[in-house]
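lol forgot to send this yesterday, sorry. C-alpha cells for the thing we talked abt
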C-alpha cells in the first residue's frame, strides 16, 4: 500500500479513492490474510521475524524516540508561549506541576527499583538503575547551563523532566522483562508471583498500546516534522468551501481563471450541503502523506510482532508463552532509554556547537 500510494497529491488521483474507500473489500482482504496466516509454516515466521521484522522494529523505536523528544520540546514551549501571551499563571503552574511531578515520580520509581530489583547479587540491575540515574542528572544539568540557555532560552527542566520519567520507565520495564533467575538469584521478584506477573504484563501491554497508537498516528500524519522539510502535497485543512460566485466570475471574466472553474465551483456548491455529503477537503492537497502513513504502520506492526514474541525469542521447552520475558527485550529497552537521553542531550548541545545551522550567528 505504501508503494501504491506513493506521490498521491490530491483526491483527484484515482488512488486516493483506494485510500479513503472500499472498506468492505479491505475488511474482507484482512480477514483472508488472517486465515492465510494459519497455513504459513512456523519457519517462515521465524525467518521474517529475524531478518525483516526485527530491523523494522528498531527503526520504529527510533521514530518513537524522535517523536518523544519533539513532544517534550513542543509541549513545554507551547505552555510557555501561552503564559507569555495571555499572562495567565495557570499555564506556568501546570508546567511547574508537570516538571516537579515528573522528577518526583522518576526518583520514586528509581528508589523502588533499587529496593525490589537491586539486591547485592543483581549487579546488572544495579548498573542499569545507577547509570540511568547518572544520565538523567547529566541531561537535567545540561538543560539549565547558561550556554545552553543562551542558545535557546526555552530549554529548561520541563523537557528534561519528561525525558527523565520516560527513560526511567524504560529501565523499569526492562528489568521487569527479565526472564527467570539463574543460580538461585532473585533479581526479578515479579516472576515469583503469578498475580504480580499478570498485573505487570497487563499494565505494560496497555501502556505499550497507548504509546503505539500515539506514535503511529502522530508519525504517520506528521511526515513533515520527521523529515524536517516542506511537503507540498499536504496542505492545511479546508473546513469551508467558498460560497457565491461573484468573485470567481470576475476572475474568469478578467482571464485570470479558465471558464471551467465556474463548473467546478458549481459542483462544489452542490456537494457542500448541510444534509448532503461532506465537501472534498483534499481536492487541492492531501491532509497527510498516504505512502508515509502506510510505511509507519508497517513498521509499527513489525514492532508489535517483536513485542508479542519477546523479540523473536521462543522457548520450546516451556508450554507457557510470556510476552516480553527475554534478555533481548531487556537490552532493547535499556538501549532505547540511553538513546532517548543521548538524543535529548544532543538537541541541547547542537545549537551551541553548530550555531550556523540554527541561525544563531
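and heres what i got for the seq, position by position
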Amino acid at each position: 500500500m505504501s508503494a501504491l500510494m506513493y506521490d498521491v497529491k490530491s483526491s483527484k488521483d484515482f488512488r486516493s479513492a483506494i485510500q479513503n474507500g472500499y472498506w468492505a473489500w479491505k475488511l474482507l482482504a484482512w480477514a483472508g490474510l488472517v486465515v492465510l496466516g494459519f497455513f504459513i509454516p512456523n519457519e517462515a515466521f521465524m525467518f521474517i521475524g529475524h531478518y525483516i521484522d526485527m530491523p523494522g522494529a528498531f527503526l520504529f523505536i527510533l521514530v518513537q524516540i524522535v517523536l518523544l523528544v519533539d513532544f517534550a520540546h513542543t509541549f513545554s514551549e507551547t505552555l510557555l508561549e501561552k503564559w507569555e501571551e495571555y499572562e495567565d499563571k495557570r499555564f506556568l503552574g501546570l508546567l511547574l506541576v508537570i516538571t516537579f511531578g515528573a522528577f518526583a515520580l522518576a526518583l520514586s520509581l528509581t528508589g523502588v527499583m533499587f529496593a525490589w530489583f537491586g539486591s547485592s547479587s543483581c549487579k546488572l540491575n544495579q548498573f542499569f538503575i545507577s547509570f540511568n540515574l547518572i544520565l538523567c542528572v547529566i541531561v537535567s544539568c545540561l538543560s539549565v547551563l547558561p550556554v545552553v540557555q543562551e542558545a535557546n532560552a526555552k530549554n529548561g527542566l520541563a523537557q528534561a523532566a519528561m525525558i527523565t520519567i520516560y527513560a526511567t520507565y524504560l529501565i523499569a520495564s526492562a528489568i521487569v522483562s527479565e526472564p527467570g533467575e539463574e543460580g538461585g538469584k532473585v533479581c526479578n521478584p515479579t516472576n515469583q508471583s503469578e498475580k504480580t506477573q499478570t498485573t505487570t504484563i497487563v499494565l505494560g501491554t496497555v501502556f505499550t498500546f497507548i504509546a503505539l497508537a500515539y506514535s503511529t498516528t502522530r508519525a504517520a500524519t506528521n511526515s513533515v516534522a520527521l523529515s524536517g522539510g516542506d511537503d507540498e502535497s499536504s496542505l492545511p485543512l479546508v473546513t469551508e468551501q467558498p460560497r457565491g460566485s461573484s468573485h470567481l466570475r470576475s476572475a474568469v471574466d478578467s482571464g485570470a481563471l479558465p471558464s471551467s472553474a465556474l463548473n467546478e465551483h458549481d459542483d462544489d456548491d452542490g456537494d457542500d450541503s448541510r444534509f448532503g455529503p461532506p465537501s472534498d477537503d483534499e481536492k487541492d492537497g492531501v491532509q497527510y502523506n498516504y505512502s508515509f502513513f502506510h510505511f509507519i504502520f508497517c513498521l509499527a506492526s513489525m514492532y508489535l510482532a517483536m513485542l508479542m514474541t519477546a523479540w523473536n525469542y521462543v522457548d520450546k521447552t516451556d508450554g507457557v508463552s510470556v510476552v516480553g520475558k527475554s534478555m533481548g527485550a531487556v537490552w532493547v529497552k535499556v538501549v532505547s532509554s540511553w538513546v532517548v537521553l543521548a538524543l535529548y542531550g544532543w538537541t541541547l548541545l547542537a545549537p551551541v556547537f553548530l550555531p550556523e545551522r540554527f541561525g544563531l550567528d
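The radius of gyration is 26 Å. anyway ping me if u want another try
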